[in-house]
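Bug #77: duplicate submission created two jobs. Keeping one. Sequence:
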Amino acid sequence: MRRARVLVLLLLAGAGLAACDVPGFESETGRTEQGQEVFDLWRAEVAAAFVIGLFVWGLIFYAAIRYRRRSDAVPGQRQYVLPIEVTYTIVPIVIVAVIFGVSYGVQRDVDDVAPDPAVVIEVTGFQWQWQFHYVDEDITVTGLPDEPPTMVLPVDATIRLKLSSHDVIHSFYVPDFLYKRDVIPGVDNEIDVDVTDEGTYSGACAEFCGLDHARMTFTVEAVSADEFDDWVAQQQSDSESATTTTTTGAAE
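Kept job's structure:
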């Protein structure tokens, strides 16, 4: 009975902790829908590990106190206890299976692409900068050695990023998005991001790619839909003005 009461108390304590609001441990929560799913998965796994750890430590302390040596008498000896051995074999298998299943589901959702994204951007990594080509808007933003590019994105919209490289392996990484994808020559990767919060976020190449790898950075500017439309109109106007000036100069 005493043993049963201890186990019940441990289970109740674990259930109580699981019901509490799990902290974020100073981690970014993810500024995209995909990043938030990754964050929720990580936080759930940390909470589960804490509860399991508490339960195991409780059993250890219980065994150390309950079965501590009180005399020189040798305690009862048993070769094995089949129910306990079956339990501590099956339980870890179930835990790993659950973690695998949940992780697979989150990974599938994060890698899923929408049939009709709002904006399609071709992201090209090259030594040692980035180029962003907005397909439908016909806008190209290319980074320079001393002038990293800025990727402007509307919030609350599905953005398709088509990643490619023409030289070596790079890695498209925005820490605030909690998401990174390698950019490999000959391999066309596509990812969707749905930015939820307006703001300015830093990005970089997260795969060592040569001499100036550390300078291969960029900025993501998440704005409202109206601001994005204004930015597109301004970029297209500037492009038309530059084309007109070049044509006039050639004619003269």
